UniProtKB/TrEMBL annotation:
PANTHER family: LACTATE UTILIZATION PROTEIN A (PTHR30296:SF0), UNCHARACTERIZED PROTEIN YKGE (PTHR30296)
GO MF entry, a single one: oxidoreductase activity
Residue ranges annotated for the Cysteine-rich domain, each copy included: 3-84, 129-223
Organism from which the protein derives: Adhaeribacter swui
Signal peptide: none
Pfam families: CCG
Annotated Gene Ontology cellular component terms: cytosol
Superkingdom of the source species: Bacteria
Protein name: (Fe-S)-binding protein
Length: 247
């Protein structure tokens, strides 16, 4: 298979190591990866702010970059969900290409568990780790079960983390609580966002986490800012970096 690597703009600008870890991990697993160099923002920030009608140029470019690929994979559940639900072509004859992309784009852990069906990894990370279940991934992409449902629990990210040698996955009191980032929500409602983030951080700290991980670097960026302001030694690390680690 040939996989197009979709790296969200904020990862490209602020956390390039996450992009590199994603690429290395996929290649280690035998995937043929291509990276379209002309990719930019997928348009999610505009759409979240009520301006989805201004995102067509982003859609057009995305289709141009990722057309004719078997799969598209990204280390960001929120951006993947945006493409799955909102990508459409400007011209009717190009809509089949947009439909193909919507059906073939996957968040990284989703791709590893559902498509590659990974059962073991050669990774090592001897630390106590707290897993943050981001809302877009959990409630949109169904990467993990919602605790309010009377249903069999599951978590695709946790399944992969349990394959990592030496990693101790800690239990949290509120395992699927929102961190408060919410994209543009953290700008429009900064006080509420900050308080939610502090509560989320405290849950991890109370249970002895050395690292906080997740499948969305945007949420982790929010938590990282709070940790730094609290002068905490706890670090955030995207799940791709842990699954690719040999520490």
């Amino acid at each position: 298979m040939t996989v197009g690597l979709f790296i969200p703009c904020y990862v490209d600008q602020f956390y390039p190591k996450v992009a590199i870890a994603t690429l290395e991990l996929l290649e280690k697993l035998g995937v043929d990866v291509v990276y379209p160099f002309n990719q930019t923002c997928c348009g999610q920030p505009m759409a979240n702010s009520g301006f989805e009608h201004l995102t067509q140029s982003c859609n057009n470019l995305f289709i141009q970059n990722f057309i004719n690929l078997d799969y598209i994979v990204s280390p960001s559940g929120s951006c993947v969900l945006h493409i799955k639900e909102h990508l459409h072509a400007e011209k009717p004859h190009e809509e089949p290409a947009a439909t193909h992309i919507r059906n073939k784009i996957y968040e990284l852990t989703e791709f590893l568990t559902d498509i590659l069906k990974i059962e073991n990894l050669t990774a090592r990370f001897p630390h106590r780790v707290g897993m943050h279940q981001s809302c877009h991934g959990q409630r949109g992409l169904k990467l993990s079960q919602m605790t309010e449902l009377v249903a069999e629990p599951f978590s695709k990210p946790e399944k992969l983390l349990r394959m990592v040698e030496g990693l101790e996955l800690i239990d949290l009191s509120r395992q699927d609580e929102c961190c408060g980032f919410g994209g543009t929500f953290c700008v429009a409602e900064e006080a509420v966002s900050a308080k939610m983030g502090k509560d989320r951080v405290k849950d991890h700290l109370d249970h002895g986490a050395e690292f906080i991980t997740g499948a969305d670097m945007s949420c982790l960026m929010h938590l990282e800012g709070i940790l730094k302001r609290q002068k905490s030694n706890v670090q955030v690390k995207h799940i791709a970096e842990i699954l690719n680690s040999h520490a």
